[in-house]
Design goal:
This protein has 172 residues and is mostly beta strands. It contains no helices and 15 strands. It folds into two domains: 55 residues, no CATH class; 90 residues, no CATH class. The strands form four sheets. The chain has a seven-stranded antiparallel beta sheet, with no helix packed on it. A three-stranded parallel beta sheet has the order 1-3-15, with no helix packed on it. It has a three-stranded antiparallel beta sheet with strand order 7-8-9, with no helix packed on it.
Length: 172
């Protein structure tokens, strides 16, 4: 299972699950092309201790993204400009950028870099924590005083450890 935290990393390891299939056998979940739209931080689906489970004709999505995103457009020695993705929500609090989602706020913690040119993604420390000054240039557009990052990189951040689905000792 990926995107989880140990008890050392997060004291409360309670997981919210949208749809739990537990100890079921010979079951078909027919969605008839339905959309399951999830709200808040949660794992969409868990299949636990099941055998012969078929899930078909279902579409899955979050009402609001669980990951925030912005793209660096300009980088100079101590200056950086970035555009926040339209699906990402934020507030500027005491000169710092804070991400906002359904039931969560995020300003500290790890980030992820995504270089679409290299088709690569990797985790990094949150460079926004070290920004000296943030200025909102326009809606979804910011200037940062910092010496961090490269041009044309997308940043992704999330406050929770979310996964779409995972399976526990099941045979499908």
């Amino acid at each position: 299972m990926t995107n989880t935290a140990s008890e050392e990393e997060q004291r409360d390891v309670t997981k919210t699950i949208g749809l739990l299939l537990k100890q079921l056998h010979h079951v078909t979940l027919e969605g008839n092309d339905s959309l399951f739209l999830f709200h808040g931080k949660q794992t969409m689906l868990v299949v636990d201790g099941c055998t012969d489970i078929e899930i078909r004709n279902l579409h899955w999505d979050y009402a609001a993204p669980t990951v925030t995103e912005m793209t660096v457009n300009v980088r100079e020695d101590a200056y950086l400009e970035a555009t926040v993705h339209l699906d990402s929500h934020y507030e500027l609090v005491n000169g710092k950028l804070e991400w906002i989602g359904e039931g969560w706020r995020f300003g500290e913690g790890p980030m992820q870099l995504c270089d679409s040119g290299l088709s690569a993604t990797w985790r990094v420390d949150n460079w926004l924590e070290r920004v000296l000054h943030t200025e909102e240039l326009a809606r979804n557009s910011f200037a940062f005083i910092s010496k961090t990052m490269r041009r044309r990189i997308s940043f992704q951040a999330q406050s929770c450890k979310c996964v779409m689905a995972f399976e526990i000792k099941s045979v499908c």
